[in-house]
Design a protein that fits this description.
21 helices; 631 residues; alpha/beta
Length: 631
């Protein structure tokens, strides 16, 4: 069922066209991820879809059954409200009954013998019956429990940033709707809460549209990706991985087409350059074609410069931490913490909110001092620190002038120099944007500018505190490229699992109460290790419960079907590989037919999945054949 249809909508802020002539439809089964660089209008587009803003041109047509719930990136909070009042915020009779009922239940838990509260609960139960609110109440409690919200009477003002984010999410998730719109729902959430949110959204029976930079989250929740780029909207069926594959295929096809254009241009240029006499007799149509080709030809740079900046010499001693203890407001955040950082370490720091992750970075940068223990910084160390705190940009300065204050030119590893303007281009600031005041940048664009200013300094140690909270996917990819080429240690606090998988080769896991454990490998390695620990524990338990009777080993042999399969499987694999090659050829031929290209992509995905299954099966049968031969 179509819930909402935007038809040829425009949105303009001042002189900036945010999007133009966009048409988009949301169906009841859609789970849409909206992506694009900061400043392209993602939040503005969400507001249009949530009906909290109207387009300057065009129209938005909605179903009579449409019920929208919208969670903005910066929700409004009543600091004096309790958690339950904030979660069940609303003035409708339905929401008031839910709020009163949950508040009364919470009060009774504290005062079980209060007769007035008991009588009030009976009265509210009757109202819950009248409003058919029990199912919503049950679902709400399930969601609150999954998000770790248990103290309903706590004041909002006493919550951490992560706690506030959780209750804002809970408030959006528990309200009945058939279109849920979320702007950066994973910001300020720890990894466990993000995984819980994935589970909730996958199970939720409504359409969803969201902006998020979390690529694993997009992969596991969405079935459609929409890219907002330079005022235009591009739609891709599938999750984030499928989007990347399809986009890569289209880019490759476009690259081939560009190469053909360059070849044709050279041929036509040679033809145009022939003698004066010949030029007089040239066909006008061919001349016109040449000039059109010249105008339309892309000047793309095939060899995009990677961010391989030179770094200051780093001595043998980097950062040495020994037996450090730190307590803040009575809470132990680090207990006997010791670590000697080496020159090429890539450390990711994970843990729940408020357990001391940022505290460790602030100790290394000497913004804080340890209660006991020592922290020694090498004489050659120059730290670059990207923080969560207010970045204090001068809004009156132009973008280019702000970066030039850091450095007008920066040295690369090969000894050449790159200008501040070129670095800005690499960080997605166009030539026009570079000469605009910082005040005209969006919040995300300011964070991107701040990140570049940190990287432009003469640093050889890089600390990052939650860089993924405010940076778009394209900027994160640029940062990941920078880290890959950076010659010093990198220490990053992050809840972004994809980012940690890309950059980390070791994790510090903050367990709480000052305890920090180490895990070698990236985030997925850590998760696999934890799952393996759990599985091993269960197996041991199961084996312990089994009877001690020994079973005689059976003689290994192929079943009749396995024998037939083993004899033909290599031919089957070759046939599938040929089919994939045939599909690739068809994709090139149909490069301008998006519908056909999508159909062929789906066919290729199915064939590749089939191929993987057959390859796994071939490997199993081959190993079994070898064991049978040895038996």
């Amino acid at each position: 069922m179509v819930l909402l249809s935007a038809q040829n909508i425009y949105k303009i802020y001042g002189e900036k066209v945010v999007f133009r002539d966009i048409s988009f439809t949301i169906n009841s089964e859609d789970k849409v991820g909206l992506i694009g660089i900061n400043g392209t209008g993602k939040t503005s587009f969400l507001k249009q879809m949530a009906l909290v803003d109207t387009p300057d041109k065009g129209e938005i047509v909605t179903s009579n059954q449409l019920e929208v719930e919208y969670l903005p990136q910066m929700p409004e909070f009543d600091d004096e409200a309790t958690v339950i009042e904030q979660i069940f915020r609303g003035t409708s009779p339905f929401m008031r009954v839910l709020q009163d009922y949950e508040m009364t239940v919470a009060l009774i838990e504290q005062n079980p013998s209060d007769e007035k509260l008991q009588n009030k609960l009976i009265s509210l139960s009757e109202k819950m019956d009248a409003h058919n609110a029990w199912q919503v109440e049950s679902e709400a409690k399930a969601i609150l429990t999954k998000l770790g919200i248990t103290n309903f009477l706590q004041k909002v003002k006493d919550l951490s940033g992560g706690g506030r984010k959780k209750i804002a999410l809970a408030g959006a998730l528990i309200k009945p709707c058939n279109l849920l719109i979320l702007d950066e729902p994973t910001n300020h959430l720890d990894n466990e809460t993000i995984m819980m949110l994935e589970e909730i959204l996958r199970a939720k029976k409504c359409a969803i549209m969201m902006v998020t930079h979390d690529r694993y989250f997009l992969d596991r929740v969405t079935n459609k990706i929409v890219e907002l780029d330079a005022g235009n909207l591009y739609t891709y069926e599938g999750n984030y991985s499928q989007f990347l594959e399809l986009k890569a295929q289209r880019d490759a096809i476009n690259a081939r087409m560009e190469d053909k254009k360059h070849t044709l241009y050279k041929q036509e240029l040679e033809w145009i350059r022939k003698g004066v006499e010949a030029r007089r007799t040239k066909q006008k149509a061919r001349k016109d074609r040449f000039y059109e080709l010249e105008n339309n030809l892309s000047n793309r740079n095939k060899d995009e410069m990677s961010i391989d900046l030179a770094t200051s010499r780093l001595g043998k001693k980097v950062v040495e931490i020994k037996d450090v203890n730190k307590t803040i407001d009575g809470k132990c955040l680090l207990k006997d913490f010791t670590h000697i950082f080496t020159r090429h370490e890539r450390i990711g720091i994970i843990g729940a909110n408020g357990v001391g992750k940022s505290t460790l970075l602030n100790l290394i940068t000497q913004k804080l001092t340890p209660d006991t223990g020592t922290i020694e910084i090498g004489d050659t160390v120059k730290i670059g620190y990207y923080t969560q705190e207010s970045i204090g940009l001068d809004n009156n300065m132009r973008v280019i002038d702000f970066i030039k204050e850091k450095a007008s030119f920066i040295e690369r590893k090969d000894g050449t120099y790159t200008s501040a303007g070129k670095m800005l281009e690499m960080f997605l600031f166009t030539s026009a944007m570079q000469y605009t005041p910082i005040s005209k940048l969006s919040g995300g664009e300011k964070r991107r500018l701040y990140l570049l200013s940190v990287l432009m300094e003469d640093i050889n140690v890089l600390l990052l505190d939650e860089p993924t909270n405010d940076l778009d996917i394209q900027t994160l990819q640029i940062l990941e490229d920078f880290i890959e080429n950076f010659d010093g240690p990198v220490i990053a606090v992050s809840h972004d699992r994809y980012f940690l998988d890309k950059i980390a080769d070791k994790l510090f896991i903050f367990e709480g109460e000052g305890i920090v454990t180490n895990s070698v490998g990236n985030y997925s390695d850590y998760v696999a290790y934890r799952q393996n620990e759990t599985t091993t524990s269960l197996i041991i338990k199961e084996e312990t419960l089994k009877s001690g009777k020994e079973r005689l080993p059976k003689k290994l042999k192929f079943s009749y079907l396995e024998q037939k399969e083993f004899e033909t499987i290599e031919e089957v694999i070759a046939e599938i590989e040929q089919k994939i090659e045939d599909v690739d050829e068809l994709m090139i031929k149909n490069s301008n037919d998006y519908g056909k290209l999508q159909e062929l992509t789906n066919e290729k995905d199915a064939l590749e999945e089939q191929l993987m299954e057959k390859m796994d099966r071939w490997e199993y049968l081959t190993e079994l054949s070898e064991k049978i031969a040895q038996n």
